[in-house]
Design brief:
heterodimer, A: 188 residues, six-stranded mixed beta sheet, 10 strands, B: 551 residues, six-stranded antiparallel beta sheet, 53% helix
Chain lengths: 188, 551
């Protein structure tokens, strides 16, 4: 009889404790994106040099799409890495696109100048593109395959080696099993 | 006549039409209301504890704009919510859907409630049935008489507490009722009950007890059941075997509770922590994968130190906040934050930061140095400062730094009072300027900016070295809620870095700061430079006009 009672008590309390323990392992701020392996939403970005960039025009290329802001510390940390990665792959069938969010033109341009960023960059004035890609932290990066499908997402700062590796995967339409994570700031 | 009637019908029709139209217009929800209604159901992706409607964040504003735009485009509320769900997942809905897996969230509470009600009913039913079994028996006066004459105590067979048989329950009930009778007698003798109540209650209990006794006597004997009789030798033997079992149960239960408490405590302290910044979460460490000493943390620490050296304090603060978000007890980051707070003139905050660093690393020289200087320069706590510096002296090897500590220790007076600065000045004339070295003047507001004056703002009068290299101010004076014109004096006691003399060529600036934080510059703050900058220390009538709005 006592053994039965203990077993019943454990059966009730055990799952609740397991649920509690699982809850402690979760970062409540983290939003898992439902966009992995889904088609990338098309957009037109007004670049800082005045040109318009259409995502649809980039079909056939692997695309690295990076959301950033000049006020974001991890963005500063990754800026050199991104430019280094761009220099490595710019002659391949791949392209980088930078999207500044929640930023002023002046600060964004100073940022690009400070880090000698040479790949196309523009500003998402209304945050429409940011919302279309479900961004909530800065920086966030998306890798899009030549067919226009998102193959990998990385929240937070990213290193050049990972950018190149994931872009090569994207070029082969290899979808990563899960998104990556580095240091990030929440958007404002 | 017909025409008149037709006109009246037409007029009535038009009138009705107009009313219907107005009613339609009144019943159609306003676009703003619709936007708000949808935004209320969406979770702000930045703050997360607020809805998009309630959050003041920029992201929420942009999300509201998207909701409004989609409403204008003719999308239904469900379509708009679907749009956000497609981007952020079900998470973005403050009210989970009632379909699919989310339906569990709605159903489970009712299932649990239902199970609880069923369990409660079952327990009550068992209890009532047991009571009925006991009370419904007819009473035999002879048995009742026998019962009232029976003594209380341990002479009755003691059923095992784990024995759930009918007979054991009856035995337990009999003992309970006898105790109840004893209590009743005691209450009556103590004068707590009237005689009539006592008699009535006694009869009632005796009746119940008698029926129990009667039923026990009518039951067949159960030799196999372990029934304890404490008075007898055999029951003593049984008790001696069951007592260790009971003890084992208590020990096991206690151990389980202790282990559970420890695990919970460890997990809570490991998983929860104070927010290091607005962007930080309350969870961290190994449970969320942010381990101390990670390359990211080291990079942020290096970045902070570099920014500090370059006197880019906002950048340094951000970097150290990042470090502290991942390693809330990093003594180096706390120490640097302390020095930044010293720069900003927040002695108390600086002291707190140094203490945090020392709570983790009691012999951290940088924190000891900072704490000592704050105690000495800001708090005038000479005894405290002396103790800190003496501790520091024991930690650092001979060299320039040690000499510096010795020098400061010599400077601190042995007892309370103002530090003997003149003596120090004699020993080290370059280190501290004479008390007479000061700048005096007046701060006024340009008439065209009178409307921009925030009555709650703080005025900072800032003296910077006129080297053109930027960097932190040499001296700062803060005046809360100033009343213009403001007369001011800047002197050695306003110098930010301990030991730096208030001397040389200086640029004077005044800034009326809305948030009262000298480190941040908010658009809308107003400021002004002295027109004859740079000036020498000792200049009088330095009249600064605040005439610029910061963007």
């Amino acid at each position: 009889m006592p053994v039965r009672r203990v077993v019943i008590t454990l059966l009730i309390i055990g799952p609740l404790l397991a649920l509690l323990a699982y809850g402690f392992t979760r970062d409540s701020h983290y939003i898992v994106s439902p966009l992995l392996a889904k088609p990338a939403t098309p957009f037109t970005l007004k670049l800082f040099d005045g040109r318009d960039l259409n995502l649809a025009d980039l079909r056939g290329k692997a695309v690295f799409l990076n959301f950033w802001a000049s006020w974001c510390v991890p963005c500063r940390e990754e800026a050199h890495e991104l430019e280094a990665a761009w220099q490595k792959i710019k002659d391949k069938n791949m392209i980088f696109v930078g999207v500044a969010v929640q930023d002023t033109d002046q600060n964004a341009l100073e940022f690009l100048k400070e880090f000698n960023i040479s790949y196309p960059n523009g500003k998402d004035e209304t945050a429409k593109i940011a919302v279309d890609y479900g961004t909530w932290g800065i920086p966030e990066s998306f890798f899009i395959d030549p067919q226009g499908r998102i193959t990998y997402k990385h929240v937070g700062g990213i290193r050049a080696a990972l950018v190149v590796s994931k872009l090569e995967d994207a070029a082969k339409s290899i979808v990563s099993a899960q998104e990556g994570k580095g240091d990030y700031s929440a958007v404002k | 006549m017909k025409l008149t009637r037709a006109r009246r019908v037409l007029a009535l029709f038009l009138l009705l039409g107009s009313i219907v139209h107005r009613l339609d217009a009144a019943s159609a929800p306003d676009l703003e209301d619709q936007t708000r209604a949808i935004a209320t159901e969406l979770r702000c992706v930045v703050c997360q504890n607020l809805s998009v409607a309630d959050s003041p964040s920029e992201m929420a504003q942009q999300m509201r704009a998207i909701v409004r735009e989609q409403l204008e485009a003719g999308k239904s509320p469900d379509q708009i919510k679907d749009f956000f769900v497609s981007k952020y997942g079900e998470w973005v809905l403050l009210k989970p859907r009632t379909t699919g897996f989310s339906a569990l969230l709605w159903i489970l509470p009712y299932v649990v409630l239902g199970l609880g009600v069923i369990a409660a009913l079952w327990v009550i039913q068992r209890w009532v049935r047991k009571k009925q079994v006991i009370s419904d028996r007819p009473m035999q006066p002879a048995v009742s008489q026998q019962l009232s004459g029976e003594p209380l105590g341990d002479e009755f067979p003691q059923p095992d507490l784990d024995d759930d048989s009918h007979k054991a329950r009856l035995l337990r009930e009999r003992i309970r009722l006898q105790h109840e009778l004893a209590d009743l007698d005691f209450d009556f003798q103590a004068g707590k009950l009237s005689e009539s109540d006592y008699v009535a209650l006694k009869q009632e209990i005796e009746a119940k007890a008698a029926s129990v006794v009667q039923e026990i006597s009518s039951l067949p004997p159960e030799p196999a059941k372990p029934i304890r009789k404490p008075a007898s030798a055999s029951s003593r033997h049984q008790q001696s075997t069951s007592a260790p079992l009971q003890r084992w149960k208590i020990i096991a239960g206690g151990t389980f509770l202790l282990v559970f408490g420890l695990v919970l405590g460890v997990m809570l302290t490991k998983a929860a922590r104070p927010r290091g910044s607005e962007n930080d979460t309350i969870t961290g460490d190994f449970l969320t994968g942010t381990t101390p000493g990670s390359p990211e943390v080291r990079a942020a620490l290096d970045e902070g130190k570099q920014a500090f050296e370059k006197q880019d304090f906002p950048k340094a603060i951000e970097a150290f906040k990042t470090v502290l978000a991942n390693e809330p007890n990093n003594p180096e980051a706390h120490s640097y934050m302390g020095f930044i707070l010293v720069q900003a003139g927040h002695g108390d905050g600086a002291l707190m930061a140094f203490d945090k660093a020392l709570s983790q690393a009691p012999n951290f020289p940088m924190a000891l140095w900072g704490k000592g200087m704050v105690l000495y320069q800001d708090k005038k706590d000479y005894a405290g400062a002396r103790a800190v510096f003496e501790r520091l002296l024991n930690l650092i090897p001979p060299g320039e730094e040690r000499n510096e500590v010795v020098k400061v220790l010599a400077e601190i007076p042995a007892s309370g009072g103002i530090p003997n600065r003149s003596a120090v000045a004699e020993k080290n004339p370059g280190a501290v300027s004479p008390v007479s070295a000061q700048i005096t003047g007046k701060i006024t507001i340009d008439p065209k900016l009178q409307g921009s004056v925030d009555p709650n703002a703080a005025l900072f009068i800032i003296a910077r070295p006129a080297t053109g290299a930027g960097g932190p101010p040499l001296a700062v004076k803060k005046i809360d809620r100033p009343s213009f014109p403001v007369d001011f004096t800047l002197s050695q006691e306003n110098v930010m870095m301990p030991g730096v003399p208030f001397a040389g060529k200086i640029n004077i600036t005044a800034r009326l700061d809305k948030d009262g934080n000298p480190v941040t510059r908010t658009p809308g703050d107003i400021s002004g430079d002295y027109r004859k900058n740079p000036i020498e220390v000792g200049t009088k009538n330095v009249d600064v006009v605040i005439d610029q709005i910061m963007k």
